[in-house]
Amino acid sequence: MNQKRSIFGALKWIMFNYIFLGILILIGLFIALAPDLLGDVIPRHGTVGKLLTSLNERKIEDSQHTVMTIPDYVRRVVTIGESTVDIMGAIGGEPYIVATDGSPYSGSTHVNGRVELTVDSIKSYEPDVVVAPDSTPPSLVSSLRAAGIPVFVYTKKDSFNDIILATKTIGKIFKDEDSEREFIVSRRNVKKLVEPHEKDKKPVIALYNSSHGVYRSGIIRDMIEQVHGIDGAGNLVITESGKDINMLSDVWWYRDHKTTVDMNQSMGTKADLIRINPDVIFVPTRFIDKLPDYKQDIDAIMNDPDLQNVTAVKKGYVYPVQELFVMSYSWKAFMAMEQMAKWLYGPSTYEGIVKYKSEP
């Protein structure tokens, strides 16, 4: 009898070990094969999380052809530079931004963390990867990499096509295969509004705010041309120190030779606006998010005695457009273009706004 009990006890012990081992194997397979299902149940930045994610890594190449190793499951990102947060929005990356350096054009996104551009400040957020434009100081990039932090550098240039390229490049971090979806939607909406007016005379368009001046960049030219307009500020000179009244140049040259336009340095003046004499003025302002404050910016133009002979002012073709979108160098610039198309060719829904009438 005792012998039977001994054998039965040994079998139970062996079976327990096998069951326990099987449970461990199942847990391991679950972690290895389906990490996304876990969400943030296991923190990826803790000691256990680091161990688990180290089992699932991949190599990725940035715009400068630097190859780096990042977790297969990226969930902690620090962004650097204007617009990077907004670009992340197009690929669904906003929830994973733990800190940013305070980009002024990311107004729609709430990010608790704010970093200084130092290794210690950025490292304190334990990022899986840092995403930064190519305007980031190379010394900072190299110092971060020396500290073991992957830095994904993207190219920031002054055109719609380059915005799309930058978004697709950053999308590789999250394995986003559909990063163009936001651009496609806006372009489709604009095309639908513009097509019935393709034979109309193109209006000369300028972006102007009395507090800042005439806006000029390749992105703005892209917006204007896609809404069937002529960029009135396109031939205002753009130099690193601002406008040279003795020269004429074109934003296309600047686009080919410079990374981006520093709008603060390259604004045109009220005199430039008068010389352009646009048919339509779009006013970059805090339209939508600060209603009705935007009307003050419209009124400042409509009531300016110096501008009463400008065609757009005489006819009342002065419309607001969201400043944060215009300045974003991200998919939100396409939303600004969509706003322009709606003002020009869509139904008017705002009281006191004179509806634009295109000419044949």
UniProtKB/TrEMBL annotation:
Residues 76-348 form the Fe/B12 periplasmic-binding domain. Keywords: Membrane, Transmembrane, Transmembrane helix. InterPro entries: ABC_Transporter_SBP, ABC_transptr_periplasmic_BD. It comes from the Bacteria. The chain crosses the membrane at residues 12-34. Belongs to the bacterial solute-binding protein 8 family. This is ABC transporter substrate-binding protein.
